[in-house]
Amino acid sequence: MFYFGMIAGIFGLDFIIKKMVDKKLALGEKKTYAKGKIILQKYYNKGFALDKFEKYPKLVAYGSGLVCSLLIVKFCILLFQKGKKGIKTALAMMIGGAASNIYDRFRKQHVIDYVRFGVKWKPLRKIVFNLSDFSILLGALLFVVFRGKED
User: Fold this and answer.
1) Distance CA 51, CA 108 (A)
2) C-alpha distance from residue 9 to each of 15, 47, 55, 73, 82 (Å)
3) What pTM was computed for the model?
């Protein structure tokens, strides 16, 4: 089924990228591309976004697992209903990204982030992302857009 392929694809691609970054870059090492606009940097995130609650890794891991479980329940409820492709796509994107980061949290006690943007806005410039983060963010935006709009 398409949605399961999307979940597996996001998880698998991010898993491969994280493994390559972890193997080829030293912690904190930076490589710049596109005239400094894209920065590859290995960073270990031990908390939620922006390292929130980094001192409580079990809370972060189990809290993430709980939220992902709720997304999976919602996804399963909608899966066999006709239509609702937008919301199903949104949930699949969030589940794929969340599962990848949760896997890291339980296996390594941190999430490997690896891309930053060299932009003028300082708060964004400081954040290090991974593919799963983008997938979760885009899925959440799609969820807001499609929620309640599809029959």
Assistant:
1) 15
2) 10, 24, 31, 20, 23
3) 0.91
